[in-house]
Amino acid sequence: MVHLGQLVLSLLPLVFWSDQQNPITNPLDTSRLHNGFARPVDVTTTKSIAIVGSGSGGLAALKTILDLPLETRAGWEVILYEQRRDVGGVWLPDPPGPLPTLPDLPESPLYPRLRTNTPHPTMTYPNFTFPPGTSLFPQWDALQQYHADYAAHYGLNEYIRLNHTVVSAQWHGHDEDGDWHIEVHAHGGDDGREVVLKRTFDHLVVATGHNHYPNIPTWNGTVAWLAGTRPGRPARQIEHSIYYRNPEAYANQSVVIVGAGASARDIAIQVSPVARVAYQSLSNGSSPAPGATVVPKPRISHFTHDAIIFEDGSVLRDVDAVLLGTGYEFRVPFLCSPHASTMDTDPYTHSTSPTAGKLTSNLRYIFPLHRHIFSIVPNFPPTALAFVGLPVLIANAPSDAAQGMFVAHAIANASLLPSQDEMMQELLEHEAILRARGYDPYRVGHRLLGGDTEAQDYQDQLVEYLKKHGVLPDDGKKYVEDWRRFARLDSQLLARAWKRVEQLREEAYWLAGVATEAEWADLMYRLADWQRDWEEEHGQVAFAGAFQAE
Ligand SMILES: Cc1cc2nc3c(=O)[nH]c(=O)nc-3n(C[C@H](O)[C@H](O)[C@H](O)COP(=O)(O)OP(=O)(O)OC[C@H]3O[C@@H](n4cnc5c(N)ncnc54)[C@H](O)[C@@H]3O)c2cc1C
Ligand SMILES: *[C@@H]1O[C@H](CO)[C@@H](O)[C@H](O)[C@H]1NC(C)=O
Ligand SMILES: *[C@@H]1O[C@H](CO)[C@@H](O)[C@H](O)[C@H]1NC(C)=O
Ligand SMILES: *[C@@H]1O[C@H](CO)[C@@H](O)[C@H](O)[C@H]1NC(C)=O
Ligand SMILES: *[C@@H]1O[C@H](CO)[C@@H](O)[C@H](O)[C@H]1NC(C)=O
Ligand SMILES: *[C@@H]1O[C@H](CO)[C@@H](O)[C@H](O)[C@H]1NC(C)=O
Ligand SMILES: *[C@@H]1O[C@H](CO)[C@@H](O)[C@H](O)[C@H]1NC(C)=O
């Protein structure tokens, strides 16, 4: 497997330069140099925190740290490094121009026709709604704007360094004390030069997302298959969904879409109407995207110079393109060799949570972590390193905010966390419960499998813990409101309702006067009732569960 992150990073030139505008990160302040890494310049700094990433997770982490009582965070220095030109993470499209090709990766998997597959009120941070008039299932640009608005509204931008790539983070110290030596490359300045900043931080919050490093399966025979030429047909291709942009690229082609996750389904729905024929290759037990006109196929066995052979022995000779909706790997290159030795990445590791001497990613699961957040390893204290945004199959903005509060309060007072032994015990119990349900926790990874209920309970438990320990007021309420639970559980019903609203061109009627969180919740309840009544009378009209953007 090509180590994509390293390939990309190895292209960066190294230039040492003093960051005049930002004395905090001035690497040439030798009076405060520590093994070449500058300490915070302001001697009154009591705690320094680096957050990596300004997608949904990083913004939530920053906001929740700033929400701590002023007396608690007095003297704290918080910097968020974001490698891209703006905030928003996956919702910020690639810059204009041709897409990179392997081994280089696009900045985002976003494609122009992306509309959310969940109603936007379920994708909000607490008490920060989308603007009035926003379609219930908006296009990607509303999501990007939402994140930019959130950053502006809460004054986050002054803490954010755009065009700053964290390239390594190495702990210097032991299990109770020490600091991170962090190397950051700044780019995009007027003179186009790369700037290398090196400095220390007490805490590192990693919010780098998990839709960036494609999981690309390998099959025998792909090289010969790709090389095969056919008169009058386009060159064959095998492409991961991170490179997918427009269905027109597959017009009149014969395509095989591999997988049954969100990307594969959305691509099947978009490509099948324009393709000559679309097949969807599925594992046992998964079904093709409803509403997509695909021919289901089993898993691919291998390729030959002129055919694709499936596990049931069936053969396809006419295929032009194979589109891999095969998901992503959990990688954090700046924590790993050759940049640092904070984390091991090994898909074949024999480590387990209790035996790992070090933080480990098997590409599906980063372990051992306390509640998918804090590392429980012998090398450094748990609050030294936190992840925000790892859980999968969850409405992530509210989850990011809950995780952010948990991180902020634990950084403020590490005694809030259980002992390392207790945290490990809790993790082993969690892994045992998964095994008892027939799952391998090292394959399940950060997926919250119990459906929306488990995902909502996870967030409630984080906040409950903080209330129980007296750092959040106990208002007697659950963190995840009932309307969020209902709208996630009924998001397919709401999608069918909204599809009908659009067919009737009644968007303006339904959206009139809807502005506050309570009004959005009420709109969704009304829509669900309206749709249920209609379906009782007319039956359920099959609907793909994804919207075609115009
Ligand atoms: C195509 C697609 C469609 C989706 N649709 C939905 C949907 O309809 N509904 C839903 O609920 N969820 C959806 N999701 C889930 C979505 O991933 C989350 O909603 C969320 O946006 C992820 O946020 P994040 O902050 O965890 O990660 P990201 O958005 O990936 O942000 C991570 C940020 O970290 C930065 N970064 C990474 N490495 C470094 C580094 N070394 N130095 C500096 N910065 C770095 C990146 O540039 C990026 O900006 C979708 C995801 C994808 C990919
Ligand atoms: C929610 O947001 C509104 C509008 O910004 C604000 O007036 C209100 O105080 C907020 N409520 C809470 C509980 O934060
Ligand atoms: C970031 O870099 C881009 C070019 O890649 C540049 O256009 C933009 O102005 C830079 N932004 C900042 C804040 O430096
Ligand atoms: C791939 O091909 C090689 C050589 O032809 C063979 O030994 C191997 O078993 C094949 N692997 C799979 C998974 O089919
Ligand atoms: C579609 O492809 C077929 C098979 O190669 C070809 O015969 C046909 O002319 C194509 N149609 C269009 C509209 O390009
Ligand atoms: C998949 O299903 C087929 C037939 O339905 C069966 O023969 C095969 O063993 C199954 N494979 C797995 C991995 O479950
Ligand atoms: C830190 O948390 C512990 C455990 O909840 C508590 O006993 C202690 O008083 C807290 N310390 C401070 C300074 O708040």
From TrEMBL:
InterPro entries: FAD/NAD-bd_sf, Flavin_mOase-like, FMO-like
Cofactor field: FAD
Molecular functions (GO terms): flavin adenine dinucleotide binding; N,N-dimethylaniline monooxygenase activity; NADP binding
Signal peptide: 1-17
Stored SUPFAM superfamilies: FAD/NAD(P)-binding domain
Pfam families linked to this entry: FMO-like
Keywords annotated in UniProt: FAD, Flavoprotein, NADP, Oxidoreductase, Signal
Family assignment from sequence similarity: Belongs to the FMO family.
Protein name in UniProt: FAD/NAD(P)-binding domain-containing protein
